[in-house]
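Collaborator request, handled under Task 6.
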Amino acid sequence: MAIVKVLEVIASSPKSFDDAVQNCVTEVSKTIRNIDSVYVKDMKAHVKDGKISSYGVVCKVSFRVDEVN
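Structure tokens returned to the collaborator:
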């Protein structure tokens, strides 16, 4: 039986929401294997001097746990 775990991660980027999600996956991939999907739970943008200064996302990263025999 396959087991899937979900990890909630906050990530950001000065470029875009897409880049913030990619940063999330890149960082999580350094320590977690078998990532299946990313669900973007929330998005926000920080504003400075009337312009967006950074983009932030809260993501739920799903990954399969290796079976132990």
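The cover message to the collaborator said: "The first strand starts at residue 3 and ends at 13. DSSP finds one helix and three strands in the chain. Please let us know whether this matches your experimental observations."
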